[in-house]
């Protein structure tokens, strides 16, 4: 009997939301998860979860066990860190989440180097098309863009990120370059459906002046690389981060549109839940590593193409 281990097992199970998901994470069979849960319930003399073929639901006793148990695990972790913080070694499974494009191009290479530096940490990187709920899906850390709306989450900025409007020379030669934000309403615009923000609404700023424009076009996607390809093919104006489009701006394949106007930044954060995971050695090491990694990444090599005022920072999307 190990009450602490049982608590940790139960918390993980509720976060995963299914026996199969936890079995996959722990590398065991679903029947093994079912057997362990049954033993815990038998030891406690109560049912903690109602189980059907499709979902799990927490009973009243299970909710109490979960709430009190999580706090006890937090306190235990804090106690152990106080006693052995000087000898803490990053190890164990680290579950990280990032968006497809940014995750493939930037987080995956970072993980490759991190894994060599911290061989006792097993990294499970999951790429999705949008920001996920870290607690619900049991992630230790997520890479997010823009402001972090939930104050219960702990966020650390790992890079600045500015966005630009751009289009191909062929499109601008044919349609003409917009001179004001409202001119965009008469242009074909390539719109990304990436988050819960208003679809096709662009906010532009020049000094104290702000303009909000509802744009439209024949092409839209939830994938940034797809949209970038369409912009390069001359299908319209695209809003994209400098890190994503900088090589094309430098080569002249794309041009900045309305360069005197700026767009809201979407700085990049490493976000962890406000629970015991946020201060674990493995998470702390990974976040510190990401800050170091992006700080020392090569900054936009080469010279910018004439007419494209590039800001030389670590910025991407």
CATH topology of the largest domain: D-Maltodextrin-Binding Protein, domain 2
**Secondary structural class:** alpha/beta
How many domains make up the coordinates? 3
**How would a crystallographer describe the biggest sheet?**
5 strands, mixed
Q: What would you call the quaternary organization?
A: single chain
Written account of the structure:
The protein is elongated. The chain has 317 residues and is α/β, with parallel strands linked by helices. Helix content is 38%, strand content 22%. It has a five-stranded mixed β-sheet, with helices on one face. The chain folds into three domains: 84 residues, Arc Repressor Mutant, subunit A (Orthogonal Bundle), CATH 1.10.10; 79 residues, D-Maltodextrin-Binding Protein, domain 2; 95 residues, Periplasmic binding protein-like II (D-Maltodextrin-Binding Protein, domain 2, 3-Layer(aba) Sandwich).
Can you summarize this structure?
This protein is of the alpha/beta class and 317 residues long.
Task: Name some characteristics of this structure.
317 residues; alpha/beta; Arc Repressor Mutant, subunit A; D-Maltodextrin-Binding Protein, domain 2; 3 domains; five-stranded mixed sheet; 9 helices; 22% strand; disordered C terminus
Topology:
Layout: H1 3-16, H2 19-26, H3 30-44, E1 49-51, E2 56-58, H4 60-84, E3 92-99, H5 100-117, E4 121-128, E5 141-145, E6 154-159, E7 163-167, H6 169-175, E8 189-192, E9 201-206, E10 209-214, E11 220-221, H7 224-232, E12 237-241, H8 242-251, E13 255-257, E14 268-272, H9 281-295
Parallel strand pairs: 3-4, 3-5, 8-11, 8-12
Antiparallel strand pairs: 1-2, 5-14, 6-14, 7-12, 7-13, 9-10
